[in-house]
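User: Can you help me understand a structure? I only have the sequence.
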Amino acid sequence: MICRLCRQRRARRACPALGHDICAVCCGTKRLLEIKCPPDCGYLAAAREHPPAIAVRQQQEDLDVAVQLVRDLNERQSQIFFLIATFVVRYQPPELHSLVDDDVAEAAAAIAATFETAARGVIYEHHAASAAGIHLAAALRPVLADAGRSGGTPFERDAAIVLRRLEQFARRPHAGSATPRLLLDRLGRVIRTSAETAEPLPTADPAQRLIVP
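Assistant: Let's start by predicting it. Here is the structure, written out as tokens:
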């Protein structure tokens, strides 16, 4: 029997989520991404208990990047960062506007510049250069406005610092990687792993309403 997903390899694994057999490659690469695996799936449990060396290395690299992203940030800035990161990785761009790291950098830079300008007493809304960045910034602005509703300038200063940090990492050259979504994919894996294992992220839950003094 041929795997129904790839239509190339032999289907040797019974997938409880799909109700039919799939190949080992699709099982390993599409697990929890395209396939909603039930918690009692034996292949999922085995992968978690004995992850391959490449997966362990990837997890360590993802965690290292996450730690670097929040390094030297205070508690509120860390909360703002994970609020933004969670929103960005779950964001669904409009049709024909796929999101890549450069778009994240553009959106972060535009909103940060707007906050920085406001701190100098000038109200001016900066805009991203890319269409996808413009759409992302437009979706993210009200989220930040709601989170910092009573924070005023101090909140905007903290948000600008976080957004500049995100911009810096999103603009990093993708050495050794062919994907233009290197940072987005890393953040997605970190946030997804935290949700699956019920382990907290390095700071408070980003879904919580920020408490701004």
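Now, to help you interpret it: The longest helix spans residues 101-119. Residues 13-49 form one domain. Let me know which part you'd like to focus on.
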